[in-house]
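DM from R.C. (forwarded with permission)

"hey, sorry to bug you on a friday — could you get me a structure for this? deadline for the figure draft is monday and I only need the backbone to look sensible"
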Amino acid sequence: MWEARLVGGATSMVNLIIHALLMAIVVRTVQRLSVAQGSFIYDLVQRTVVIVATGTLLVAGHYVEVILWAFTYGLAEAAAPGTDLVYFAFGNYTTLGYGDVLPVERWQMLGPLTALNGIMLIGWSTAVILEVLRRTDHGAVKSPKTAPDTAKSGS
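My reply, with the result:
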């Protein structure tokens, strides 16, 4: 049981690092982005591109994290031979858990650890998407050089 916790903890840590790097890229890009004020259609298209690009990047990141869990399951031989490990990992990562695929007894703890990791990282992505939406709403995205310093103004 401790072996499963160590392997699951290590996989969670690697996924956390992957996600942190991904979040840093998204946040830094949005911080540097300046949404130009233009026509309604131009603004709508520009904001849509930002949101779709953010969502696509985050979904791709989650897919890589699920693949890492599937790879971990394979290395540990955590499921019966012939099991679709990506399907199994997705079910655990998203907490869907149909229960049609079960881990071997020795590795049962990997399922809940995968679920905990997935919940945390999906929640983090949701928070970042909301921040991107907030920053792109009504031209709120400014270049760091032109953004007002709210600490000095007391707001």
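R.C.: lifesaver. Helices lie at 2-32, 40-76, 85-93, 110-136, 150-153.
me: no worries. The radius of gyration is 20 Å.
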